[in-house]
Amino acid sequence: MWFYQEMISFIRSLFESTFKTNPNIVFAVLTGCLRISKESIFTGMNSFEVVSILKHEYDERERKSYLTLKIPNVEVDYIFREKVSYWFEEKVKERDRSRLYQAVIEKDAAVFEEELNDIMPETISFMGYHESYYHGLVTGVLTAIKRYITKSNREGGTGRSDLFIKPVSRRKEAFVFEFKVAKSIPEMEKKAEEAIRQIEEKQYAGELFDEGYGRVSMYGIAFFGKECAVRLKE
């Protein structure tokens, strides 16, 4: 076949330079490709793992649902759940988030915004960012605050605020979070203030007062792409 050997050599070289010797790639996903061992086009790739359609992970009954993430097919869905999500969680754990946690508890909205914006560029990119994506991101970032309980209300669609952070001791202050997605950078501040108003108008803090917390502050956070604006009201 014309140019067959030339094409095999080209693809083998392309894979090696893209996936093995490229210093800008941590991991990569290659889909829609049959593994033809005869031609050895994958020999130049390190830590290569084949995800076959015969794996039990493809059982529809075992799939988790992603609210608004557009996963194009079952193969990519498995890779996202088992590989990408795990990688991101581990990367976030590596960071020292003590300054961010301190800012949240001490109500320093400026530092909280700075730290959150510092994390955002490391997150996974999607064509369409939705509120549920940012909700999951912030929830994941804040879950490790010691002696505080993080409660996400997004999963149940309860009509409550997006997120609560409440101390184990009811003598300390609790926090209510509401998230918004802006259509532009200039709109972020407006959306963050809108989130604060929603917390007040719908009395989201009432649940925490009912639990015995005497002080509750409100955070409104607006996102656009990989940037955010944080507003606080005590």
Summarize the structure.
The chain is an alpha+beta fold and 234 residues long. It has helices at residues 4-19, 74-94, 98-105, 109-119, 131-142, 187-201, 206-210; strands spanning 148-152, 163-167, 174-181, 216-224, 227-233.
Q: Can you walk me through this structure?
A:
The chain has 234 residues and is an alpha+beta fold. Helix content is 38%, strand content 15%. The protein has helices spanning 4-19, 74-94, 98-105, 109-119, 131-142, 187-201, 206-210; strands at 148-152, 163-167, 174-181, 216-224, 227-233. Strands 1-2-3-4-5 form a five-stranded mixed sheet. Helix 3 packs antiparallel against helix 4 (109-119).
Strands, helices and their partners?
Layout: H1 4-19, H2 74-94, H3 98-105, H4 109-119, H5 131-142, E1 148-152, E2 163-167, E3 174-181, H6 187-201, H7 206-210, E4 216-224, E5 227-233
Parallel strand pairs: 3-4
Antiparallel strand pairs: 1-2, 2-3, 4-5
